[in-house]
């Protein structure tokens, strides 16, 4: 059962553009993580959001947790080629992490 | 230090071989995980160890056998695998197993190829 759906699945943009990735679920999570993964490597934790409505900023990345703690978004401002990778959201409940379907981002110079 | 170390990075094994994957963390985390990731797919949970005891087995075939010798180490013993078991195997750890928010840190993974 896929508990978390991400959209879009693929995104190819030019350097300097802005983008938003969405992570949606019908389930409530105690926390939600965003990871970035390079091919053949493990996911690297970017941020954890815990409180409904919470907004966290990490340089050009802005993460938001929905009020009901069922969904989240990742917004990247002025994307750079170094942002290229697979972005994964993961909802956490009782020590189980459910991964979203992933968004593959390609930022062209 | 948020490092989870996995060895080996790459492994090629035959269907009759026995091999082991190793994972180590020194963050004092009491929950450790094995995930399997096929190409272009998200990671899928296999096992969860909580305080060195197996707490979750996601109906994984018995040819995969996890072991947690102590709170810092996690092994995955492999025997009689099939070519379709070829994947990136990821180890992760998190602070503890109590309900509530927690976050997982992942290793670099072991790229396994079964021939």
Give an overview in words.
In chain A, 0% of the residues lie in helices and 58% in strands. Chain A is mainly β and 109 residues long. Helix content of chain B is 0%, strand content 56%. Chain B has no helices and eleven strands. In chain B, a hairpin with a 6-residue loop joins strand 4 (31-37) and strand 5 (44-50). Chain B is globular and about 40 Å long. The interface between A and B is medium-sized, with 26 and 32 residues.
Task: Offer a few descriptive terms.
heterodimer; A: 109 residues; mainly beta; six-stranded mixed beta sheet; five-stranded antiparallel beta sheet; globular; B: 115 residues; seven-stranded mixed beta sheet; four-stranded antiparallel beta sheet; 56% strand
Produce a short descriptive summary.
The complex is a heterodimer of chains A (109) and B (115). With 109 residues, chain A is an all-beta fold. Chain A is 0% helix and 58% strand.
- Percentage of residues in DSSP E strands of chain A: over 45%
Largest sheet of chain A: 6 strands, mixed
Number of strands of chain A: 11
Oligomer: heterodimer
Order of helices and strands of chain B: EEEEEEEEEEE
Q: Provide mean pLDDT of chain B, rounded.
A: 92
Integer-rounded radius of gyration of chain A: 13 Å
Using a beta-carbon cutoff below 8 angstroms, give the protein chain pair with the largest interface and the number of residues from each chain: A-B, 26 and 32 residues
Major sheet characteristics of chain B: 7 strands, mixed
Number of helices of chain A: 0
**How big is the Rg of chain B?**
13 Å
Can you tell me the overall shape of chain A? Answer: globular
Q: Strand portion of chain B, in percent?
A: over 45%
